[in-house]
Fold this protein.
Amino acid sequence: MSAARWVDPVDVHTVAAAAEALFRSTFGGAADGVWAAPGRVNLIGEHVDYAGGLVLPLALPYVTVAAVRMRDDDILHAVSTHTDETWQGLLADVAPGHPAGWAAYVAGVVWALRRSGHLTAGTGFDVAVHSTVPVGSGLSSSAALECAFALAVADLAELPTDDAGRRPLIDASILAENEIAGASTGGMDQSVAMLARPGHALLLDCRDGATRHVPLDFGSAGARLVVIDTNAPHRLVDGRYGNRRAVIEKACADLGIACLRDVADADAAVAALSSPAAQRARHVLGEIDRVREVADLLDRGRIADIGDALNRSHASLRDDYEVSSVELDAAVDAAVEAGAWGARMTGGGFGGSAIALVPTDRVDTLVADVVRRAHSAGLPVPQFLHAEPSGSAHRLGNSHDTTTRAKSGNSAGA
């Protein structure tokens, strides 16, 4: 049986050095700056962001870093340490479905900022990316990429980057993912990547965008939050995620409301819908209540007591929303049997990751049992990550003055 593999966080400056080295070898010279944004895990509140619900994510100590330099020729040239797939083209030609692949998340940000009037046409960018957020794990590597680059563009274009100034950047990142990359996600991932605070989860109201930082100190409760990456990649652009969202939108139309959050009587609303819309709505309405429950418990410092809500969330996602998988169910079941206070799938589902809230002295047992369960079922061996509430997107260092940097229109490789 394969041994458990922990993926430890890497110092952000080490990650930045890899991005800068790629930048120099590809484009020549130094970048104008380097920016980082975190991956995220959602403590609770799954598949409710696009229903105007409440979510409670936290930023992870795993980041995507972008080394960026401005150009004056409308060209975007994007490279990454993780793939030989590069993209170079005119930003004026960016449109839904073009470019394809990972470059859509970068090019789409510029497209969205231009569309909203926050960025003028003509400026281009060279960008080199390095990341420690596992791709395909459901930990929002795409939003980390979007937000690192969006913050870079804002700094270089001298746009506001305080909390209020980050709202248009969040919107642009969401639009890039929805329209250019074709993934119909909500706004939770981008919001926490841009607004997170160390030692806190972010309570986000997806109906009006209001946020509140909720204290989250696992150590004070003698606990750890462990991310279990099942190594079964999730796919949000294969139609199933979009199908769930479409069902919720149709349910709202049938009920005559703008979003499910507007339901006054949950039982009556569910009874008025036919299958499978009834089950989908029951999950969404119940999950919003569970977020309120968990936030209240955290406000009172009762971290150990949120486990039951995590368990109920997973059961609802598995049975009513039907977005779990055999890998996720095996990980959650093994974690609970090993002594976790609570465990659930997290992210969009159909693969990806689960989380387990576990007493510190049970971590090793939990990890061994989850690996054993996967091995006995013939499933991929999971890997494990540390879920320590971390900070938001930021610029690294201060070696370049954003008010005087020169634009480059003839970078090497262009």
Summary: The longest helix spans residues 277-299. The chain has eleven helices and 13 strands. The first strand starts at residue 5 and ends at 7. The CA atoms of residues 315 and 344 lie 8 Å apart.
